[in-house]
Amino acid sequence: MNEFWAIILAAGESKRMGFPKMLLPFNGRTMIENVIANVTESKVDKIMVVLGASRDALVEKIRELDVWNCYNDNYMQGMLSSVQCGFRNLPTDYKAALVFQGDQPLITPNAINTVIEAYSSSGKGIVIPVYNTKHGHPLLIGVKYKDEIEKLTPDSGLHSLASKFPDDVMEVETGEPGILRDFDTYDEYKEGINQIQ
Predict the structure, then answer these.
(1) Which of 25, 187, 20, 5 has the alpha carbon at shortest distance from 105?
(2) Of the candidates 182, 185, 147, which has an alpha carbon nearest to the alpha carbon of residue 165?
(3) What single DSSP character describes residue 177?
(4) Residue 137 DSSP label
(5) What's the CATH architecture for 4-190?
(6) Which of 31, 44, 47, 154 can bridge 67 by disulfide, Cβ–Cβ 3.0-4.6 Å?
(7) Strand boundaries in the chain, DSSP class E
(8) What is the pLDDT of residues 152-193, one digit of tens each?
């Protein structure tokens, strides 16, 4: 049984970047390859990449990697539609899924494992990683919430699950600022590149 799946959201149009940001060079690979590599080195068992805009170019990049992928026909409706697509395409025999954004290559395997370990030890169905009181990714959601995710609306978003089921939420401090860091603009990307060189 593959207990822990990663859902990597890579369907966005990268409008603010002006270029498919998952394909930008980052630390010797593309951004999406870095994200997949970090997840692969963690305790996650399987990876589902949700594709939308730039699907063909991304498939070309990840075709040799040990990942599954699905296509979100509704990617222009926003991130929640990709989350729902990812959960819809998972097999039934999993315990929990961790939701990643494809433009967060600084989330380390250690941070991912911290979230998984918090889930395993706490018995909570939703685990939110934290750095200095700020919520980040990956958000871990137990399989029991699969139907709830399908019911969510874009105006509420994925994080509304935690508000709806507060007694089943655990926040875990990771000590890692990378869980907060994404890259929406080219300036943010250049700054990130400079930090890792």
Answers:
(1) 25
(2) 147
(3) G
(4) S
(5) Alpha-Beta Complex (3.90)
(6) 47
(7) 4-10, 25-26, 29-30, 46-51, 68-71, 96-101, 126-131, 134-135, 139-142, 169-173
(8) 988 888 888 999 999 999 999 999 999 999 888 888 888 877
